[in-house]
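Retro notes, item 3 of 5
We never archived the inputs for the glycine complex last cycle. Fixing that now. Sequence and ligand:
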Amino acid sequence: MNLLVVGGGGREHAIITKLKENPTVTKIYCLPGNGGISYDASCVAIGAMELDAIVDFAKKNEIDFAVVGPDDPLANGAADKLLAAGIPVFGPSGDAAAIEGSKVFSKELMKKYNIPTAAYEVFDTADAALSYIKSTNRFPVVIKADGLALGKGVIIAENTSEAEKGITSIMTERIFGDSGNRVVIEEFLTGPEVSVLAFTDSKAMIPMVSSMDHKRALDGDLGPNTGGMGTIAPNPYYTEEIAAVCMKNIFLPTMEAMNKEGRPFRGCLYFGLMLTESGPKVIEYNCRFGDPEAQVVLPLLETDLLTVMKAVANETLSETPVRFSKGAACCVVLASGGYPGSYEKGIRIEGLVAGQLRAENTSDSFVFHAGSKLENNELVTAGGRVLGVTAKGNSLEEAIASAYQAVGRIHFSGMHFRKDIGRRALDANKQEKK
Ligand code: AMP
Ligand code: GLY
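Structure as it came back at the time:
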C-alpha cells in the first residue's frame, strides 16, 4: 500500500507513526511534512492547500489511500477532490467539514437538533453585534469569528471596551479576512473542558479515549491562547456516566443531524466539550484530529489505524472493533521563545537522533515534530510549536513523569514549555479518590 498524508504538523506525525505499524504499508508520502517527519515518510514540498497539485501527485504516485490532517484543506474540499480522482480518503467532504469551517453553521445545527451548547446570536455588522452586547450587558461574553481563524478566532471579553476591540479587529480590521464576515456572540460557560475525538462513518460513532488540552501559553493557565501547549489522556473529568450522556445527547444526535442535512460526516469528528453544572455542552466541533490531542490519543490506540480509517471510508465501522489501551499518555509541547507571538526560526535542536530520543524504550516515548526543518542534515526550529514530546505510562502520573524526563534531554535556544501539563488532571484524580 502507498499512503499519502496531507499536512505537516505534530498531528500528522502522530498519524504517520501509527500508520507505519501496518505491515501492508510500503510507502508513506507526506505533503508537505517537516524535518522530523522526513525520517518516517517521504516529504514532498506541496502545501496542504495546493489541492490540485495534491491530487496530481496522488494519481502519479499510485496512492492507495489518503489521509487529510488539517481543517483548511478539508473545508476547501480536499477529500472530495481526491475521491473524484478515484483515491479512497479518510477525512470529511467539504460540506461536512462546514461543521468546523463555519461557527454559524454549527451553532444553527445544534439549535435545530437540540444539541446542548451555549446560547448565542449571530450578527453580520459590527454595530449590531456591539449594540447587542451593550443591551445585554452581561460579562464575560464570548465573541467568535464565523470562519476558520487558526484557532485564534475566539475572544472572551470582560467588559464593553474589550468587546468593542474584539469586534473591531474581527469585523472592521478583518484580521481573519472573510472569516470575520459574521460573528457569533455567545453565553460564557464554565466547567472543566474535555476533548473527545470520535471515528464516524455516518452510520456508527466510536469515541476515542478522552483528552485534555492546555491552551494557554503559561503555567497555571495564564498568558495568551495558543494552538495547544500540551495534552493528557484520558481526561479524569470524563467519567463513564458523562460519556453515556454525551453519546446520547451529543455524539449520536450530531451524526444524525449531519445525515439529515445531507452532509454525512466520515472521518474524525472532534467534540470540544464543557462539563457545565447543567450537563455537558458543545464548545466547538472540529472536522479532524485535534492537535496536540492526536499526539496522546493515537499512541493509546491498540487497533491498527489504517484498518479503522479504511472502515470509516467504506462505511463498515460498525463491524470494526476499536480498542484503546488502559494506560495514559502525556504530550508536552516545546515551543519557540516568544510563541504565540513572534519568534526566531532556524535554531539548532539538540538531543535528538534521526528526530527521536536515543530512547531505551522507544515504543513508550515519541517526539512528534510540529515545526522542525532539516538544514545540512541537522534539525532546526521552523515554527512556533516545534516538538510534542509524548510518553505513555500505566498511570497518568507515570506518563507525565516520563514525558518530562524526555523533555529534559532536548534543548534549543529560547525553548519554552509548560511545567504543569496534567497537573489539574492529577488533582481531579485525587479529588475523586477522596
Ligand atoms: P475554540 O477556539 O473554539 O477552541 O475556543 C477556544 C477556547 O475558548 C475554548 O477552549 C474555551 O476555553 C473558550 N471558550 C469558547 N467558547 C466558550 C464559551 N461559550 N464559554 C466559555 N469559554 C469558551
Ligand atoms: N487542540 C485543539 C485543536 O486542535 O483545535
